[in-house]
Amino acid sequence: MSKKWLSIFGMTTMLFLVSCCRCPASGLNERLRQDFRPIEATVIDVAQDTVTIDSGLSDGISKGNLFSLFQKGRPVFMPDSRKILGFEQKKVGVCTVTEVRQNSSICKMISPESAPEKGDLAVRFGELNAAFFVEHRPSEPELPGGSLQDILPWLKWLEPATAPSPVLDSRSMNALGIDILFQVKGNRLFVYGPGMTLLNSYNLPPSFVFTNENEKESPDQQGDGAVKTQLQGIQLFDFGKAKIIGKLNRDVLQVQICDLDGDGQLEIIYLMKDELCIAPYRRQGEISFKKFSYPACACSFSVMPGTGWICVNVSLSQAGMTSNLLQYLHDSLKTVQDQINLWLAFIDSDCDGNKDILLGQSYDRDRFKGKKIFLLAPRNYGIEYIERADYPADFNINSAVTAKIGQDTCSLFYVSFDGFFKVFGKGRHLWSSLKPVVSNTKCCGPANADLIDLSRTGAKDSGIIFNGTIPLPKSRFAPSLLLFTEEDGQYVLYQAEVNQHGTIRGISVVNGAILAAVSKDTQVNHKNPQAETVIYTFPIP
Q1: 3-state class of 307 per DSSP?
Q2: Quick check: pTM over 0.70?
Protein backbone atom coordinates (compact mmCIF):
# COMPACT_ATOMS: atom_id res chain seq x y z
CA MET A 1 0.00 0.00 0.00
CA SER A 2 1.44 3.36 -0.99
CA LYS A 3 2.17 6.00 1.61
CA LYS A 4 -0.25 8.94 1.84
CA TRP A 5 0.23 12.43 3.23
CA LEU A 6 -1.53 15.77 3.30
CA SER A 7 -0.74 18.27 0.56
CA ILE A 8 -1.42 21.43 2.59
CA PHE A 9 1.67 23.63 2.32
CA GLY A 10 3.04 22.12 -0.91
CA MET A 11 5.33 19.18 -1.49
CA THR A 12 8.52 21.14 -2.18
CA THR A 13 8.20 23.24 0.97
CA MET A 14 7.64 20.20 3.14
CA LEU A 15 10.59 18.31 1.70
CA PHE A 16 12.85 21.36 1.98
CA LEU A 17 12.08 21.69 5.66
CA VAL A 18 12.90 18.05 6.23
CA SER A 19 16.18 18.27 4.34
CA CYS A 20 17.52 21.17 6.39
CA CYS A 21 18.71 18.88 9.18
CA ARG A 22 22.26 19.21 10.42
CA CYS A 23 24.25 16.81 8.24
CA PRO A 24 28.02 16.63 7.93
CA ALA A 25 28.94 18.77 4.90
CA SER A 26 31.15 17.43 2.13
CA GLY A 27 31.51 17.91 -1.60
CA LEU A 28 30.00 14.49 -2.21
CA ASN A 29 27.06 15.20 0.06
CA GLU A 30 26.29 18.47 -1.70
CA ARG A 31 26.48 16.81 -5.12
CA LEU A 32 24.07 14.13 -3.99
CA ARG A 33 21.63 16.71 -2.62
CA GLN A 34 21.76 18.66 -5.86
CA ASP A 35 21.47 15.65 -8.17
CA PHE A 36 18.56 14.11 -6.25
CA ARG A 37 16.76 17.18 -4.85
CA PRO A 38 12.97 17.04 -5.26
CA ILE A 39 11.49 19.25 -7.98
CA GLU A 40 7.74 19.72 -8.41
CA ALA A 41 6.09 19.72 -11.82
CA THR A 42 2.63 19.25 -13.33
CA VAL A 43 1.50 16.76 -15.96
CA ILE A 44 0.33 18.79 -18.98
CA ASP A 45 -0.26 15.97 -21.49
CA VAL A 46 -0.86 12.20 -21.46
CA ALA A 47 -0.41 9.90 -24.48
CA GLN A 48 -0.57 6.12 -23.93
CA ASP A 49 2.41 5.25 -21.69
CA THR A 50 4.08 8.68 -21.84
CA VAL A 51 3.38 11.92 -20.00
CA THR A 52 4.64 15.47 -20.53
CA ILE A 53 5.50 17.66 -17.55
CA ASP A 54 5.98 21.43 -17.41
CA SER A 55 9.60 21.39 -16.18
CA GLY A 56 12.76 21.02 -18.24
CA LEU A 57 16.37 22.11 -18.63
CA SER A 58 15.71 25.51 -17.10
CA ASP A 59 14.51 23.80 -13.91
CA GLY A 60 17.44 21.40 -13.61
CA ILE A 61 15.75 18.32 -15.11
CA SER A 62 18.02 15.74 -16.77
CA LYS A 63 17.39 12.71 -18.95
CA GLY A 64 16.96 9.62 -16.76
CA ASN A 65 15.46 11.51 -13.79
CA LEU A 66 12.68 9.62 -12.03
CA PHE A 67 9.36 11.26 -11.18
CA SER A 68 6.62 9.97 -8.91
CA LEU A 69 3.13 10.98 -10.05
CA PHE A 70 0.34 11.80 -7.61
CA GLN A 71 -3.37 12.59 -7.86
CA LYS A 72 -5.55 14.46 -5.40
CA GLY A 73 -7.22 12.01 -3.06
CA ARG A 74 -9.89 12.35 -0.39
CA PRO A 75 -10.26 15.59 1.57
CA VAL A 76 -9.12 15.66 5.21
CA PHE A 77 -11.36 17.59 7.62
CA MET A 78 -10.91 19.25 10.98
CA PRO A 79 -12.58 16.93 13.53
CA ASP A 80 -14.84 19.64 15.00
CA SER A 81 -15.51 22.26 12.33
CA ARG A 82 -15.33 19.91 9.32
CA LYS A 83 -13.15 22.53 7.64
CA ILE A 84 -10.98 21.03 4.92
CA LEU A 85 -7.34 20.87 6.01
CA GLY A 86 -6.04 19.50 2.73
CA PHE A 87 -6.15 16.44 0.52
CA GLU A 88 -4.50 13.05 0.57
CA GLN A 89 -2.11 12.38 -2.29
CA LYS A 90 -2.64 9.09 -4.13
CA LYS A 91 0.43 7.72 -5.93
CA VAL A 92 -0.21 7.01 -9.61
CA GLY A 93 3.16 5.50 -10.47
CA VAL A 94 6.74 6.25 -11.49
CA CYS A 95 8.05 7.56 -14.81
CA THR A 96 11.52 8.24 -16.21
CA VAL A 97 12.53 11.27 -18.29
CA THR A 98 13.33 10.23 -21.87
CA GLU A 99 13.50 13.67 -23.53
CA VAL A 100 14.29 17.06 -22.01
CA ARG A 101 13.32 20.40 -23.54
CA GLN A 102 13.91 23.90 -22.27
CA ASN A 103 10.65 24.17 -20.31
CA SER A 104 9.15 20.70 -20.52
CA SER A 105 10.08 17.03 -20.45
CA ILE A 106 8.66 13.80 -21.82
CA CYS A 107 8.53 10.85 -19.42
CA LYS A 108 7.78 7.18 -19.97
CA MET A 109 5.71 5.32 -17.34
CA ILE A 110 7.70 2.38 -15.96
CA SER A 111 5.63 1.23 -12.97
CA PRO A 112 2.07 2.57 -13.23
CA GLU A 113 -0.32 1.87 -10.35
CA SER A 114 -3.25 3.66 -12.06
CA ALA A 115 -3.81 5.78 -15.16
CA PRO A 116 -2.07 9.21 -15.14
CA GLU A 117 -4.11 12.33 -15.93
CA LYS A 118 -3.50 15.93 -16.86
CA GLY A 119 -2.97 18.01 -13.77
CA ASP A 120 -1.26 15.23 -11.78
CA LEU A 121 1.52 16.33 -9.47
CA ALA A 122 4.98 15.09 -10.52
CA VAL A 123 7.80 15.06 -7.95
CA ARG A 124 11.36 14.27 -8.96
CA PHE A 125 12.71 11.44 -6.78
CA GLY A 126 9.64 11.67 -4.55
CA GLU A 127 8.49 8.64 -2.51
CA LEU A 128 10.88 6.14 -4.11
CA ASN A 129 12.30 3.03 -2.43
CA ALA A 130 16.07 3.36 -2.05
CA ALA A 131 18.64 0.83 -0.84
CA PHE A 132 22.36 1.00 -0.11
CA PHE A 133 24.67 -1.88 -0.96
CA VAL A 134 28.38 -2.41 -0.42
CA GLU A 135 29.33 -4.61 -3.36
CA HIS A 136 26.52 -7.22 -3.39
CA ARG A 137 25.39 -6.97 0.21
CA PRO A 138 22.84 -4.61 1.79
CA SER A 139 24.22 -2.25 4.40
CA GLU A 140 23.19 0.72 6.50
CA PRO A 141 23.17 3.80 4.20
CA GLU A 142 26.22 5.38 5.83
CA LEU A 143 28.81 7.34 3.89
CA PRO A 144 31.99 8.30 5.73
CA GLY A 145 30.81 11.93 5.51
CA GLY A 146 27.31 11.28 6.82
CA SER A 147 24.19 9.15 6.53
CA LEU A 148 22.36 9.02 3.22
CA GLN A 149 19.15 9.01 5.24
CA ASP A 150 20.09 12.51 6.43
CA ILE A 151 21.49 13.66 3.09
CA LEU A 152 18.49 12.42 1.05
CA PRO A 153 15.63 12.14 3.58
CA TRP A 154 12.85 12.32 0.98
CA LEU A 155 13.74 8.85 -0.26
CA LYS A 156 12.20 5.83 1.49
CA TRP A 157 15.31 4.05 2.74
CA LEU A 158 14.97 0.32 3.15
CA GLU A 159 16.41 -1.38 6.18
CA PRO A 160 19.07 -3.98 5.28
CA ALA A 161 16.86 -6.67 6.79
CA THR A 162 14.09 -5.87 4.27
CA ALA A 163 16.43 -5.96 1.27
CA PRO A 164 18.41 -9.12 1.99
CA SER A 165 19.02 -10.52 -1.47
CA PRO A 166 22.13 -9.76 -3.47
CA VAL A 167 21.21 -7.35 -6.28
CA LEU A 168 23.00 -8.81 -9.29
CA ASP A 169 20.74 -7.70 -12.15
CA SER A 170 17.65 -5.68 -13.02
CA ARG A 171 15.34 -8.65 -12.36
CA SER A 172 16.58 -9.04 -8.81
CA MET A 173 16.31 -5.30 -8.19
CA ASN A 174 12.73 -5.30 -9.46
CA ALA A 175 11.86 -8.36 -7.36
CA LEU A 176 13.02 -6.53 -4.23
CA GLY A 177 10.94 -3.43 -5.02
CA ILE A 178 13.97 -1.12 -5.17
CA ASP A 179 13.54 2.02 -7.29
CA ILE A 180 16.98 3.52 -6.66
CA LEU A 181 20.06 1.51 -5.76
CA PHE A 182 23.15 3.14 -4.26
CA GLN A 183 25.99 0.66 -4.63
CA VAL A 184 29.64 0.98 -3.58
CA LYS A 185 32.09 -0.85 -5.84
CA GLY A 186 35.73 -0.32 -4.96
CA ASN A 187 36.28 3.40 -4.56
CA ARG A 188 33.20 4.53 -6.52
CA LEU A 189 29.54 5.03 -5.63
CA PHE A 190 27.13 4.03 -8.40
CA VAL A 191 23.45 4.99 -8.46
CA TYR A 192 21.05 2.87 -10.51
CA GLY A 193 17.40 3.33 -11.42
CA PRO A 194 14.80 0.75 -12.54
CA GLY A 195 16.21 -1.80 -14.93
CA MET A 196 19.68 -1.21 -13.44
CA THR A 197 19.93 1.97 -15.56
CA LEU A 198 22.94 3.98 -14.40
CA LEU A 199 21.78 7.38 -13.14
CA ASN A 200 25.10 8.69 -11.86
CA SER A 201 28.44 7.70 -10.35
CA TYR A 202 30.76 9.40 -7.89
CA ASN A 203 34.43 9.02 -7.00
CA LEU A 204 35.16 8.21 -3.39
CA PRO A 205 38.41 9.41 -1.81
CA PRO A 206 40.96 6.63 -1.14
CA SER A 207 40.46 7.16 2.59
CA PHE A 208 36.82 6.19 2.25
CA VAL A 209 36.94 2.51 3.25
CA PHE A 210 33.68 0.59 3.52
CA THR A 211 33.36 -2.57 5.54
CA ASN A 212 30.42 -4.92 5.72
CA GLU A 213 30.48 -7.68 8.30
CA ASN A 214 28.41 -9.85 6.00
CA GLU A 215 31.03 -9.57 3.23
CA LYS A 216 33.74 -11.43 5.13
CA GLU A 217 34.70 -14.33 2.91
CA SER A 218 36.05 -17.71 3.78
CA PRO A 219 39.33 -18.68 2.09
CA ASP A 220 37.50 -20.71 -0.54
CA GLN A 221 35.23 -17.79 -1.45
CA GLN A 222 37.76 -15.14 -2.39
CA GLY A 223 37.42 -13.07 -5.54
CA ASP A 224 35.14 -14.48 -8.23
CA GLY A 225 34.11 -17.40 -6.02
CA ALA A 226 31.75 -15.20 -3.99
CA VAL A 227 29.91 -14.11 -7.13
CA LYS A 228 29.67 -17.67 -8.41
CA THR A 229 28.12 -18.76 -5.14
CA GLN A 230 25.33 -16.20 -5.57
CA LEU A 231 24.69 -17.25 -9.18
CA GLN A 232 24.47 -20.91 -8.18
CA GLY A 233 21.80 -19.98 -5.68
CA ILE A 234 19.74 -18.21 -8.34
CA GLN A 235 19.96 -21.11 -10.82
CA LEU A 236 19.34 -23.93 -8.39
CA PHE A 237 16.68 -25.59 -10.59
CA ASP A 238 17.19 -25.66 -14.37
CA PHE A 239 14.00 -26.98 -15.96
CA GLY A 240 15.73 -27.13 -19.33
CA LYS A 241 17.99 -29.90 -18.00
CA ALA A 242 15.51 -31.62 -15.67
CA LYS A 243 14.16 -35.10 -16.32
CA ILE A 244 10.46 -35.44 -17.20
CA ILE A 245 8.88 -38.39 -15.41
CA GLY A 246 5.19 -37.92 -16.14
CA LYS A 247 2.43 -35.85 -17.75
CA LEU A 248 -1.23 -35.10 -17.14
CA ASN A 249 -3.12 -34.16 -20.30
CA ARG A 250 -4.96 -31.35 -18.56
CA ASP A 251 -4.36 -28.06 -16.77
CA VAL A 252 -4.55 -28.62 -13.02
CA LEU A 253 -4.65 -26.18 -10.11
CA GLN A 254 -2.62 -28.15 -7.59
CA VAL A 255 -0.62 -31.38 -7.53
CA GLN A 256 0.95 -33.40 -4.70
CA ILE A 257 2.61 -36.81 -4.67
CA CYS A 258 2.88 -38.71 -1.37
CA ASP A 259 1.93 -41.88 0.46
CA LEU A 260 -1.49 -40.60 1.41
CA ASP A 261 -2.94 -43.60 3.22
CA GLY A 262 0.24 -45.05 4.77
CA ASP A 263 0.30 -48.32 2.81
CA GLY A 264 3.86 -47.80 1.58
CA GLN A 265 2.76 -46.86 -1.96
CA LEU A 266 2.55 -43.41 -3.53
CA GLU A 267 -0.53 -41.59 -4.75
CA ILE A 268 -0.81 -38.52 -6.97
CA ILE A 269 -3.46 -36.03 -5.88
CA TYR A 270 -4.46 -33.35 -8.36
CA LEU A 271 -7.12 -30.67 -8.26
CA MET A 272 -9.01 -29.17 -11.18
CA LYS A 273 -11.55 -26.37 -11.06
CA ASP A 274 -14.47 -28.80 -10.71
CA GLU A 275 -12.91 -32.06 -9.52
CA LEU A 276 -10.38 -33.63 -7.13
CA CYS A 277 -8.66 -36.81 -8.34
CA ILE A 278 -6.52 -39.35 -6.47
CA ALA A 279 -4.71 -42.03 -8.46
CA PRO A 280 -1.94 -44.59 -7.85
CA TYR A 281 1.38 -43.03 -8.81
CA ARG A 282 3.25 -44.83 -11.62
CA ARG A 283 1.31 -48.05 -11.04
CA GLN A 284 -1.99 -49.55 -12.12
CA GLY A 285 -5.14 -48.85 -10.16
CA GLU A 286 -8.47 -47.06 -10.11
CA ILE A 287 -8.85 -43.28 -9.93
CA SER A 288 -10.98 -41.90 -7.11
CA PHE A 289 -12.56 -38.49 -7.53
CA LYS A 290 -14.75 -35.88 -5.85
CA LYS A 291 -16.77 -33.58 -8.14
CA PHE A 292 -17.91 -30.02 -7.40
CA SER A 293 -20.99 -28.66 -9.12
CA TYR A 294 -21.23 -25.21 -10.72
CA PRO A 295 -20.84 -22.42 -9.56
CA ALA A 296 -18.26 -23.96 -7.24
CA CYS A 297 -14.62 -23.14 -8.02
CA ALA A 298 -12.01 -25.37 -6.38
CA CYS A 299 -9.22 -23.43 -4.63
CA SER A 300 -6.85 -25.77 -2.81
CA PHE A 301 -6.46 -29.06 -0.98
CA SER A 302 -4.30 -30.16 1.95
CA VAL A 303 -3.33 -33.67 3.07
CA MET A 304 -1.99 -35.37 6.18
CA PRO A 305 0.32 -38.02 4.63
CA GLY A 306 0.09 -41.50 6.07
CA THR A 307 -3.39 -41.03 7.52
CA GLY A 308 -5.61 -40.72 4.46
CA TRP A 309 -7.01 -37.37 5.59
CA ILE A 310 -7.53 -34.74 2.92
CA CYS A 311 -9.48 -31.47 2.94
CA VAL A 312 -10.61 -29.45 -0.07
CA ASN A 313 -11.49 -25.76 -0.14
CA VAL A 314 -14.04 -24.54 -2.67
CA SER A 315 -15.16 -21.00 -3.52
CA LEU A 316 -18.84 -20.40 -4.25
CA SER A 317 -18.32 -17.32 -6.41
CA GLN A 318 -20.03 -14.40 -4.62
CA ALA A 319 -21.84 -16.70 -2.19
CA GLY A 320 -18.89 -17.48 0.10
CA MET A 321 -16.95 -20.73 0.37
CA THR A 322 -17.20 -24.26 1.67
CA SER A 323 -14.78 -27.06 2.48
CA ASN A 324 -14.90 -30.83 2.55
CA LEU A 325 -13.19 -33.32 4.87
CA LEU A 326 -12.39 -36.52 2.97
CA GLN A 327 -10.56 -39.74 3.77
CA TYR A 328 -8.71 -42.01 1.33
CA LEU A 329 -8.18 -45.59 2.48
CA HIS A 330 -7.68 -48.84 0.52
CA ASP A 331 -7.83 -47.02 -2.84
CA SER A 332 -11.25 -45.61 -1.98
CA LEU A 333 -12.24 -41.99 -1.29
CA LYS A 334 -15.16 -41.09 0.95
CA THR A 335 -16.68 -37.82 2.16
CA VAL A 336 -16.62 -37.57 5.95
CA GLN A 337 -18.11 -34.07 6.22
CA ASP A 338 -19.02 -31.40 3.70
CA GLN A 339 -20.41 -27.84 3.76
CA ILE A 340 -17.85 -26.70 6.34
CA ASN A 341 -17.76 -22.90 6.44
CA LEU A 342 -14.01 -22.65 7.11
CA TRP A 343 -10.85 -22.81 5.03
CA LEU A 344 -9.03 -25.99 6.10
CA ALA A 345 -5.36 -27.02 6.01
CA PHE A 346 -3.03 -29.46 7.74
CA ILE A 347 0.27 -27.99 8.96
CA ASP A 348 3.35 -29.00 10.93
CA SER A 349 3.17 -27.29 14.33
CA ASP A 350 6.58 -28.17 15.81
CA CYS A 351 9.17 -28.18 12.99
CA ASP A 352 9.52 -31.98 12.89
CA GLY A 353 8.43 -32.19 9.24
CA ASN A 354 5.16 -34.00 9.94
CA LYS A 355 1.79 -32.34 9.44
CA ASP A 356 0.18 -32.99 12.79
CA ILE A 357 -2.64 -30.46 13.25
CA LEU A 358 -5.69 -29.29 11.32
CA LEU A 359 -6.41 -25.56 11.20
CA GLY A 360 -9.59 -23.79 10.18
CA GLN A 361 -9.70 -20.16 9.02
CA SER A 362 -12.73 -17.91 8.80
CA TYR A 363 -14.00 -16.56 5.48
CA ASP A 364 -13.88 -12.86 4.60
CA ARG A 365 -15.80 -11.59 1.57
CA ASP A 366 -13.32 -8.81 0.74
CA ARG A 367 -10.04 -10.69 1.13
CA PHE A 368 -11.20 -14.33 1.20
CA LYS A 369 -9.18 -15.26 4.31
CA GLY A 370 -10.41 -13.99 7.69
CA LYS A 371 -8.53 -13.29 10.92
CA LYS A 372 -10.02 -16.05 13.06
CA ILE A 373 -7.99 -19.28 13.23
CA PHE A 374 -9.20 -22.44 14.96
CA LEU A 375 -7.41 -25.60 16.05
CA LEU A 376 -9.43 -28.59 14.87
CA ALA A 377 -9.12 -32.37 14.70
CA PRO A 378 -10.34 -34.74 11.95
CA ARG A 379 -12.53 -37.53 13.26
CA ASN A 380 -14.41 -40.37 11.61
CA TYR A 381 -17.64 -38.47 12.26
CA GLY A 382 -16.32 -35.08 11.08
CA ILE A 383 -14.50 -32.00 12.36
CA GLU A 384 -13.92 -31.62 16.10
CA TYR A 385 -13.33 -28.13 17.47
CA ILE A 386 -10.45 -27.90 19.96
CA GLU A 387 -9.80 -24.23 20.65
CA ARG A 388 -9.15 -20.79 19.17
CA ALA A 389 -5.58 -20.59 17.83
CA ASP A 390 -3.22 -17.61 18.08
CA TYR A 391 -1.60 -16.72 14.75
CA PRO A 392 -0.60 -13.45 13.03
CA ALA A 393 -3.52 -11.30 11.86
CA ASP A 394 -2.66 -11.76 8.16
CA PHE A 395 -1.95 -15.50 8.39
CA ASN A 396 -2.96 -17.75 5.50
CA ILE A 397 -3.27 -21.40 6.58
CA ASN A 398 -3.05 -22.73 3.01
CA SER A 399 0.52 -21.46 2.43
CA ALA A 400 2.55 -22.03 5.59
CA VAL A 401 5.33 -24.15 7.06
CA THR A 402 7.28 -24.22 10.33
CA ALA A 403 11.06 -24.46 10.23
CA LYS A 404 14.30 -23.37 11.89
CA ILE A 405 15.86 -21.20 9.17
CA GLY A 406 18.38 -18.87 10.79
CA GLN A 407 16.73 -19.32 14.21
CA ASP A 408 17.33 -21.59 17.19
CA THR A 409 13.61 -21.79 17.79
CA CYS A 410 10.78 -22.97 15.56
CA SER A 411 9.47 -20.12 13.39
CA LEU A 412 6.47 -19.75 11.12
CA PHE A 413 7.05 -19.07 7.41
CA TYR A 414 3.95 -18.18 5.42
CA VAL A 415 2.45 -16.27 2.53
CA SER A 416 -0.01 -13.76 3.97
CA PHE A 417 -3.57 -13.42 2.67
CA ASP A 418 -2.42 -10.33 0.73
CA GLY A 419 0.40 -12.30 -0.92
CA PHE A 420 3.57 -11.29 1.01
CA PHE A 421 6.13 -13.83 2.22
CA LYS A 422 6.68 -13.40 5.96
CA VAL A 423 8.66 -14.86 8.86
CA PHE A 424 7.08 -14.92 12.32
CA GLY A 425 8.96 -16.05 15.40
CA LYS A 426 9.40 -15.25 19.07
CA GLY A 427 6.07 -13.43 19.07
CA ARG A 428 6.87 -10.94 16.30
CA HIS A 429 7.44 -10.58 12.58
CA LEU A 430 11.11 -11.03 11.72
CA TRP A 431 11.02 -10.43 7.96
CA SER A 432 8.66 -9.59 5.10
CA SER A 433 9.03 -9.40 1.34
CA LEU A 434 8.63 -5.94 -0.16
CA LYS A 435 6.18 -7.09 -2.81
CA PRO A 436 3.65 -9.93 -3.12
CA VAL A 437 5.23 -13.25 -4.06
CA VAL A 438 2.09 -14.95 -5.38
CA SER A 439 -0.51 -13.87 -7.90
CA ASN A 440 -4.12 -13.18 -7.03
CA THR A 441 -6.87 -15.43 -8.36
CA LYS A 442 -10.41 -14.31 -9.11
CA CYS A 443 -12.12 -17.14 -7.26
CA CYS A 444 -9.85 -17.79 -4.30
CA GLY A 445 -7.63 -14.81 -3.54
CA PRO A 446 -3.85 -15.37 -3.24
CA ALA A 447 -2.68 -18.41 -5.20
CA ASN A 448 -1.72 -21.47 -3.19
CA ALA A 449 2.03 -21.90 -2.51
CA ASP A 450 3.67 -25.20 -1.53
CA LEU A 451 6.36 -24.37 1.04
CA ILE A 452 9.00 -27.11 1.37
CA ASP A 453 11.60 -27.07 4.16
CA LEU A 454 14.80 -28.29 2.53
CA SER A 455 16.32 -29.28 5.88
CA ARG A 456 13.74 -32.11 6.00
CA THR A 457 14.79 -33.46 2.59
CA GLY A 458 18.44 -34.27 3.27
CA ALA A 459 19.65 -31.14 1.45
CA LYS A 460 23.11 -29.83 2.27
CA ASP A 461 21.77 -26.38 3.22
CA SER A 462 18.61 -25.24 4.93
CA GLY A 463 16.02 -23.13 3.19
CA ILE A 464 12.46 -23.05 1.93
CA ILE A 465 11.48 -23.46 -1.70
CA PHE A 466 8.03 -22.52 -2.92
CA ASN A 467 6.11 -21.77 -6.09
CA GLY A 468 5.44 -18.06 -6.42
CA THR A 469 5.86 -15.13 -8.79
CA ILE A 470 8.34 -12.36 -9.52
CA PRO A 471 7.17 -8.86 -10.53
CA LEU A 472 7.54 -7.57 -14.07
CA PRO A 473 7.05 -4.04 -15.47
CA LYS A 474 3.53 -2.60 -15.83
CA SER A 475 2.21 -4.42 -12.75
CA ARG A 476 2.59 -7.86 -14.35
CA PHE A 477 3.96 -11.03 -12.75
CA ALA A 478 5.79 -14.12 -13.97
CA PRO A 479 5.55 -17.54 -12.27
CA SER A 480 8.79 -18.71 -10.68
CA LEU A 481 10.30 -21.13 -8.18
CA LEU A 482 11.67 -19.17 -5.22
CA LEU A 483 14.21 -20.04 -2.54
CA PHE A 484 14.20 -18.41 0.90
CA THR A 485 17.23 -19.04 3.07
CA GLU A 486 19.68 -17.48 5.52
CA GLU A 487 23.20 -16.36 4.66
CA ASP A 488 25.69 -14.67 6.96
CA GLY A 489 23.00 -13.78 9.48
CA GLN A 490 20.61 -12.30 6.92
CA TYR A 491 17.51 -13.67 5.22
CA VAL A 492 17.80 -14.01 1.43
CA LEU A 493 15.07 -14.48 -1.17
CA TYR A 494 16.23 -15.87 -4.53
CA GLN A 495 14.64 -16.61 -7.83
CA ALA A 496 15.78 -20.24 -7.89
CA GLU A 497 14.94 -21.46 -11.39
CA VAL A 498 15.62 -20.98 -15.08
CA ASN A 499 13.75 -22.24 -18.15
CA GLN A 500 10.54 -22.93 -16.24
CA HIS A 501 8.13 -21.87 -19.05
CA GLY A 502 4.91 -22.54 -17.18
CA THR A 503 3.16 -22.27 -13.81
CA ILE A 504 4.26 -24.55 -10.96
CA ARG A 505 1.22 -26.28 -9.53
CA GLY A 506 2.90 -28.23 -6.77
CA ILE A 507 6.19 -29.35 -5.23
CA SER A 508 6.70 -32.75 -3.61
CA VAL A 509 9.65 -34.59 -2.08
CA VAL A 510 9.69 -38.27 -3.08
CA ASN A 511 12.43 -40.89 -2.65
CA GLY A 512 15.26 -38.41 -2.30
CA ALA A 513 14.16 -36.17 -5.18
CA ILE A 514 12.17 -32.97 -5.62
CA LEU A 515 9.24 -33.22 -8.01
CA ALA A 516 7.70 -30.10 -9.57
CA ALA A 517 4.45 -30.14 -11.54
CA VAL A 518 4.29 -27.40 -14.20
CA SER A 519 1.20 -26.50 -16.22
CA LYS A 520 1.77 -25.18 -19.72
CA ASP A 521 -0.03 -24.79 -23.05
CA THR A 522 0.97 -27.08 -25.92
CA GLN A 523 0.04 -25.33 -29.16
CA VAL A 524 -1.80 -27.82 -31.34
CA ASN A 525 -2.69 -24.99 -33.70
CA HIS A 526 -3.23 -21.25 -33.29
CA LYS A 527 -6.93 -21.76 -32.48
CA ASN A 528 -6.67 -24.86 -30.32
CA PRO A 529 -4.09 -24.70 -27.53
CA GLN A 530 -4.03 -27.86 -25.42
CA ALA A 531 -3.16 -27.66 -21.73
CA GLU A 532 -0.95 -30.21 -20.03
CA THR A 533 0.86 -30.58 -16.72
CA VAL A 534 4.43 -31.89 -16.84
CA ILE A 535 6.15 -33.45 -13.82
CA TYR A 536 9.89 -32.76 -13.53
CA THR A 537 12.35 -34.37 -11.13
CA PHE A 538 15.42 -32.75 -9.55
CA PRO A 539 18.05 -34.18 -7.24
CA ILE A 540 18.09 -32.82 -3.70
CA PRO A 541 20.40 -29.73 -3.81
Answers
A1: coil
A2: no
